[in-house]
Design goal:
disordered C terminus; 14 helices; single chain; mainly alpha
């Protein structure tokens, strides 16, 4: 039986896209720095939480079938748009890079290799750095397929798994990112996969519908804002730069949950009309 779509989650995803577009629009603004810092503290976290929330493994679905489904849905669009955005470089040559503030010559072979490597860090996807999210999401879904399959219906294990996932995040930020940039955004999966997993838990334990407590939600908003503005750097997931990692995780989780609560109120309001 096909699972019913959750309209308020679709609405949440639509506004999350708007947040990202707005963040990229005001990135160089001299007057909206605080808004930029706020948006960047949670907009990617929100996307990964929502992705984890809607993550499903179909009944009886093999890994190969799951892999194919995700590859067609995520990676085919990635490859298409990564190649399409190479066209201006092919037409105008490497000079277009300097006009975009990128000091490098055009080398088709190198750029095709970078597309296959699928990582936007270090300007590897300079024709459209924003595409970094798709390979990272693909890797996220593949890796968490095995984690969630392994945990199966052991609810206690699902909660306990939060702690090693957070520990892996800390260790990868401190050590791994300094020495190696893995393909397909695997660094991102290791760094902040906790957001995806939290989204999965929200759906698994129906937490969103149970969190209708204005006091708790307001506390989350306050904690999220405090953690955001006390963090000494703007969060940059593509650059693996989180500033204070504890504050980055806290602001991402708290502000995302506050935002989802607002969408839940919208859903309840419509049901009560």
């Amino acid at each position: 039986m096909k699972e019913k779509r959750l309209n308020y989650i679709d609405i949440a995803r639509a506004f999350a896209i708007i947040f990202i577009v707005l963040g990229h629009t005001i990135v160089h603004s001299q007057h909206l720095g605080l808004l930029f810092k706020l948006l960047y503290s949670f907009h990617i976290a929100l996307f990964f939480i929502l992705s984890g929330f809607v993550f499903t493994i179909k009944k009886g679905e093999s890994f190969l079938s799951f892999f194919k489904r995700k590859f067609l849905r995520i990676m085919i669009p990635y490859f298409i748009w990564a190649l399409v955005f190479l066209i201006p470089y092919m037409i105008f040559g490497g000079d277009i890079g300097s006009k975009l503030g990128i000091n490098s010559s055009f080398n088709l072979k190198t750029m095709l290799i970078n597309v296959l490597y699928g990582n936007g860090n270090m300007e590897a996807l300079k024709q459209n750095t924003s595409l970094w999210f798709l390979p990272a999401l693909f890797s996220m879904e593949i890796i968490y397929y095995f984690i969630i399959k392994f945990l199966k219906k052991n609810n206690r294990a699902k909660i306990i798994a939060l702690f090693p996932i957070i520990l892996v995040g800390f260790l990868s930020v401190i050590y791994l990112n300094k020495f190696i940039i893995l393909p397909f955004g695997i660094n991102t999966v290791l760094n902040i996969g906790i957001f995806f997993y939290i989204g999965f838990l929200l759906r698994e334990f129906n937490i969103i519908d149970k969190m209708i407590n204005s006091c708790i939600i307001c506390i989350m908003l306050l904690i999220g804002i405090i953690c955001c503005f006390f963090n000494y750097k703007n969060v940059s997931c593509v650059g693996y730069d989180y500033g204070n990692f504890v504050l980055a995780l806290s602001s991402g989780i708290c502000l995302s949950l506050f935002y989802l609560y607002q969408k839940l109120l919208i859903k309840i309001s419509f049901l009560n009309i």
